[in-house]
Amino acid sequence: MSVEAREKRQPWILLSPALAAVTLLLLVPLLFIVVYSFWLRSAVGPDTQGFHPDNWQRALTDPFYRYILLNTLKIAAITTFFCALLGYPAAYFITRSQGNKLILLLLLMLPFWISYIIRTMSWINILGSSGALNTLLISTGITDSPIQMLYNEATVILGLVHFLLPFMVLNIYVSLDGIDTNLEDAATSLGATRWQAFTQVTLPLSLPGLAAGGLLCFVLGAGTYITPLILGGPRDAMFANLVLEAIITQLNWPMGSALSLLLLIVLGAVVAVYNRYLGMSQLTKGLG
Amino acid sequence: MGWSFIRAYTILVYLFMFLPVAVVVLLSFNQNQFGSFPMTGFSFRWFEALWNNDAVMRAFRTSLILGLLTAAISTTLGVLASLALVRYAVPGKNLITTILIAPILVPEVVLAVALLLFLNWLGIGKSFALLLAGHVIFTLPFVILVVQARLVSIRRDVEEAALSLGASPMQTFFSITLPLLMPAVAAGALFAFTISFDDITGTLFWKPGGVETVPTQIFSMLRNSISPEINALGTVMIVMTVGLPLLGAAIARRLATKRGM
């Protein structure tokens, strides 16, 4: 074999295990559930194969599904908003603090390593009926019996913000850190106040980071089902809970396929819009 | 907005992030048997209870084996793919990168459903192998992102020098490239291990009946109510997933300074 032919073949040999894994374990299964979503569940025996639009019809027209879908997007949007509200000033502080930047960054990375389920359940210790907050309220005499603070939509959002905030801060930090601080100084020397310099120079330049963080918070938030299971009430299901219910509880796999594809399409559309206007490179910057 | 306001705000944000976790650790040493507050005394009894809890110990073994296998496979696949993408002119590089990163772009619940139903259709039901396959596919993109980033900064001349001095491509890889790449390989493996160790979204779909990992074990224990034992388990998890990376980073730093890098 000639050297050139070897040189040509080499990368494909190196790539083939990873490509085969992703193709067999993700791409083909995704195509498969597209087909599967048109099958019908049979009460007994195997599911009926063929092309039946029934699942899709139901997924798109059932008011209950539509309500949960819209509510999921709403919860994800509110979560993203609060992540930005809490995350931006914190990221700004980290970027501009001189001495302990490294420690602040390390502290910021720590939540990534602390288990999602533990961070989620930790709120039960705080907000539960014998939790820290109720104990405090009772011992100070503000109330005599514990207040029910858990298991509602607000606690679901709280748990999601707690889980997703590091993604937001990290993305904004990466963006802010790349901005030359001289730009703000230049603006102030030309007569802008510090606030004007910030809103007209730094903030616009950091918007890509804010958008990347926002996209991650939104997509990850909208795809979750564990947080509502642990911190939500019976009425706080999100769209992924419907998928879990269809697949694991009802064993209605064709319907579960249609519902999970619907979630993929809706979130895919959000990613596509983002990609159209901002490009994916900003996102991998924050992830890497 | 003054600087001191932003500082106070940031301190509050950090408190928001860490206070709930600190309370988990605090309560795991609670003597009290019921509920959580008030604390009645300091005790290790809940850690002892964990040690004697067969289900929890089994879950630990499962998670450990799963995490180690995931890290090994994912890192191997990821390093090979990164080498190809960074060191060779591959046609369609952008498309290939997108395909390899795709598992993090697809919501995990969708990935979980697709993989489960497809393998089931092939006649491969829920099993440890399915769980492992799922974890590998989900962690692979993180390994590739980390390793690729490092590989780009390793100068090609060093490898070419070795090759021109008569080393085979294999020898060059194992004695030049891999040692230089080691920090990223270690980071990628650690990433894969902790992501796998912590995963619950996909795991609940993929795990066969009777098999629990630590997160799914915590999840099923939470169905009753939160107990000091769950908090103790949470504390052990925190020590493992936070302590190990910190230890790893410290060791890596030490090795790096010793070698004068």
Automatic annotation (TrEMBL), chain A:
<keyword id="KW-0812">Transmembrane</keyword>
<feature type="transmembrane region" description="Helical">
    <location>
        <begin position="102"/>
        <end position="118"/>
    </location>
</feature>
<dbReference type="InterPro" id="IPR000515">
    <property type="entry name" value="MetI-like"/>
</dbReference>
<feature type="transmembrane region" description="Helical">
    <location>
        <begin position="12"/>
        <end position="39"/>
    </location>
</feature>
<dbReference type="GO" id="GO:0055085">
    <property type="term" value="P:transmembrane transport"/>
</dbReference>
<feature type="transmembrane region" description="Helical">
    <location>
        <begin position="251"/>
        <end position="274"/>
    </location>
</feature>
<feature type="transmembrane region" description="Helical">
    <location>
        <begin position="154"/>
        <end position="174"/>
    </location>
</feature>
<dbReference type="InterPro" id="IPR035906">
    <property type="entry name" value="MetI-like_sf"/>
</dbReference>
<keyword id="KW-0813">Transport</keyword>
<protein>
    <submittedName>
        <fullName>Spermidine/putrescine transport system permease protein</fullName>
    </submittedName>
</protein>
<keyword id="KW-1003">Cell membrane</keyword>
<comment type="similarity">
    <text>Belongs to the binding-protein-dependent transport system permease family. CysTW subfamily.</text>
</comment>
<feature type="transmembrane region" description="Helical">
    <location>
        <begin position="75"/>
        <end position="95"/>
    </location>
</feature>
<dbReference type="GO" id="GO:0005886">
    <property type="term" value="C:plasma membrane"/>
</dbReference>
<feature type="domain" description="ABC transmembrane type-1">
    <location>
        <begin position="69"/>
        <end position="274"/>
    </location>
</feature>
<keyword id="KW-0472">Membrane</keyword>
<keyword id="KW-1133">Transmembrane helix</keyword>
<feature type="transmembrane region" description="Helical">
    <location>
        <begin position="210"/>
        <end position="231"/>
    </location>
</feature>
<dbReference type="Pfam" id="PF00528">
    <property type="entry name" value="BPD_transp_1"/>
</dbReference>
From TrEMBL, chain B:
<feature type="transmembrane region" description="Helical">
    <location>
        <begin position="64"/>
        <end position="86"/>
    </location>
</feature>
<dbReference type="GO" id="GO:0055085">
    <property type="term" value="P:transmembrane transport"/>
</dbReference>
<keyword id="KW-0472">Membrane</keyword>
<feature type="domain" description="ABC transmembrane type-1">
    <location>
        <begin position="60"/>
        <end position="248"/>
    </location>
</feature>
<dbReference type="InterPro" id="IPR051789">
    <property type="entry name" value="Bact_Polyamine_Transport"/>
</dbReference>
<dbReference type="InterPro" id="IPR000515">
    <property type="entry name" value="MetI-like"/>
</dbReference>
<feature type="transmembrane region" description="Helical">
    <location>
        <begin position="98"/>
        <end position="122"/>
    </location>
</feature>
<feature type="transmembrane region" description="Helical">
    <location>
        <begin position="173"/>
        <end position="197"/>
    </location>
</feature>
<dbReference type="Pfam" id="PF00528">
    <property type="entry name" value="BPD_transp_1"/>
</dbReference>
<protein>
    <submittedName>
        <fullName>Spermidine/putrescine transport system permease protein</fullName>
    </submittedName>
</protein>
<feature type="transmembrane region" description="Helical">
    <location>
        <begin position="128"/>
        <end position="152"/>
    </location>
</feature>
<keyword id="KW-0812">Transmembrane</keyword>
<keyword id="KW-1133">Transmembrane helix</keyword>
<feature type="transmembrane region" description="Helical">
    <location>
        <begin position="230"/>
        <end position="252"/>
    </location>
</feature>
<keyword id="KW-0813">Transport</keyword>
<keyword id="KW-1003">Cell membrane</keyword>
<dbReference type="GO" id="GO:0005886">
    <property type="term" value="C:plasma membrane"/>
</dbReference>
<feature type="transmembrane region" description="Helical">
    <location>
        <begin position="12"/>
        <end position="29"/>
    </location>
</feature>
<dbReference type="InterPro" id="IPR035906">
    <property type="entry name" value="MetI-like_sf"/>
</dbReference>
<comment type="similarity">
    <text>Belongs to the binding-protein-dependent transport system permease family. CysTW subfamily.</text>
</comment>
